[in-house]
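Subject: sequence -> structure tokens, single chain

Hey, anyone have a minute? Need the predicted structure for the following. Not urgent.
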Amino acid sequence: MLDLDPHQSNRTGKHNGETAIQENGIKRHRTSLPAPMFSRSDFSVWSILKKCIGLELSKITMPIVFNEPLSFLQRITEYMEHIYLINKACSHADPLERMQAVAAFAVSAVASQWERTGKPFNPLLGETYELTREDLGFRFISEQVSHHPPISAFYSEGLNKDFIFHGSIYPKLKFWEKSIEAEPRGTITLELLKHNEAYTWTNPTCCVHNVIIGKLWLEQYGTVEIVNHSTGDKCVLNFKPCGLFGKELHRVEGYIQDKNRKKLCVIYGKWTECLWGTDPATYETYKKNEKRGGEQKKSNEDVIKSENDEADDMPEVQDTVQFIPGSKLLWRINCRPPNSSQMYNFTSFAVSLNELEKGMEAILAPTDCRLRPDIRNMENGNMDVASKEKERLEEKQRAARKERAKDEVEWHTRWFHQGTNPYTGTSDWLYSGGYFDRNFSDCPDIY
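Reply:
Had a minute. Here:
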């Protein structure tokens, strides 16, 4: 049965969390979660975090109310929401246009985090998630390959055998007085098989502000370098921190250069909105004119922000990206469903990820996220049951770890193995193959 684009699914008019079926029998993904988001207004995280300033947070247990009903493995799968950019890269004959599409894909991969202040569930050791989307032309498998430190490995391939997308991610979380910072360590690799090209990069740092008091808000910052290991071309993207007055909030600027460091293209935009590409000379001329105009304005108009503010107020967001004439649109974010704010600010793609369709349990691996009772109960609005199930699963995981230690048995991953990234030479987790043969007889009992 053919899948339709999830971004079109809200046109069915159903908002009860059930899978919608068109009259012609073509399946569409659900457009809503079964229950609305639980209010966090009556909960304070300060009692938990006040002893953790500057520490690594992966071992800290958070109340379930601060979660969203998805596993981190499912959050990783959201990289695939804008897969059309990979398809566009595959179709281009010009390597510069391919790099532009890959750069847009790298930015789009973090766009789903906009206003997503809920914490995904930490995957259990051995947990997996699979997603096959025939309508979008890919299949995806991920596995939690390590618990301490937490490492998630993933592998995706085009159903037409035109690309391979894989990587391992181990975010390092730290609490800094008013904010939580997630540094996403690990390499992401995209291989365009038709062009015999491989690109690698690492995501920017993500920071959630006002975890103690005030309205939660999120920013991404840091430098992302995308390397084409075949041509030597490189794309350098600067995710800008918001700054004191927030003028740079959400902004991304960068350039593509060849192996001789000649700038071929300038890229600019916002990771929450869109991305444009333009000629370097055009960009420099525009910037000079902009600076000349800015010098004519009054300085010192901004009110100095007090260092004693109780909350890091989110700066006022500029209306849109300032378009430079002659620029080429590389990517634009998808519209979210109208009820997104009641659904953890999920995108239409995210809403569909934990959907458990009839008959699916018979073919899924028993370790798949969709079968986790804590996530399922939270999604259904049963918060007390979800919290108890989360505690039970964590205790079961601890007991299994103690049992292995007593018997001196090592944990063995099922679908990935530790190795070396063939392009960067760094340590990586590589797909071992065989998942879609569906021999799940030796999968661990983790739920």
